[in-house]
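Bench notes, afternoon.
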Amino acid sequence: MEVRVLGNDPSSRTRSLGLVGLGIVASGLLVNAYLAIIARSLPAADYAYFGAFWSLALVAGFGVFLSVEQETARLLQTPGRPLGVLKAALFTAGAMALAQIALLALAWPLLGRAFGGHAVTVVAFGVLCVVSAGQFVVRGALIGMDRMGRHAFIMFLDAALRVGFAALVALLVGDPGSPEFACTLVAAIALSHAPQLVSLLRRRTRAATEADPAAGSLGPRAVWAAVAPLLLGSLCAQILLNGPPVLVPALAGNEIDATRAGQFLAVFTLTRIPLFLVVPLQTALLPMLTATLHSGDRAALFRVIRRISAGLLALATAALTLAYLAGPWLVGLVFGPQYVLPAGHVAILAVGVTAYIGMVLVTQVLVAAVRHRLVGWSWLSGLLVAALTMTLVSDLLLRAELAFLLGSLAGWLVGTALVLTKPRERVLQSVR
């Protein structure tokens, strides 16, 4: 029997990345349409409260469970893997979801304020923590099983359901608020991923590699041991990206500040569109980077870093120019004229997104080089710089914009320095 491992066959790897890229582009466009529908259905102040929910949803999803997705994909790609990988990953993700709900109960007053005092939105966030656990296990399993077409379809279906549900709320509810739209996100994720999770658990989806009964069964503890070193970095990454849209409405002292918070969210949503193309590709890029770095060729490592740096400098220049010249017009076109901010605000966030992309790519090089523990240090350094900036700058919007820019830049530079530092000892991860 021929055993196929995702990433070893160049043509298969290219085809797989193409399918993922197609799904990401389509779903990214639909997600922005989803946010635009909500923005045009709500006052700017109420949209800020939905934005806080949206941003925390990304923290609870990507921040907590992305490492589970990556490890599930890696384990399922390994020939001769143990039995029970999927169940162990699901059990680990479920335990992490329960921990999130416990934290939610403790933080209920703060969340209630960030969500505009809507208890329904807080409850929806708790349900979201549970469905996100299944969502990322499903995505990791499909990548690990080399079912990239199905992975792309589910991403598209998820985004399409969000748009459809939001449109129904906007059309059928007389005076919709942020809680109704928060529920559309939870419903879309659950309905798009639950059937596939059931299919996986019933083993109706064949894996790309065969499990070896002689290797025994994999337990949740082994999955957690692999996930834990990545969790700190993943959480810091999402807090750095999604913390400002949560903090700005929480710090708003009056109706004018709440309106500015809604404007900030609209601009931030538009400028970080490139992240919809880059961030979800992290897991799919790991096999390619691993193949490049596995030999320990330091020259190849330096080539990777040079290409990343050159590409990002070009992207930053283009982002700065486009944001300054056309940013306010694009914000008004997509979200409406009430959300427009001066060009300088748009430019700062656009360059910050470019630096954040640099952090994402550099930390993936660290993961591919099996230096997982250094990932957390890179993201943590960026988060600390962002927190310091938030305390030193007084203006409501400028403090959030500079915190994101300077934090992302610091993390990118620290991550690059860590990549170029020669490890004392190269230790390859085992399946267990």
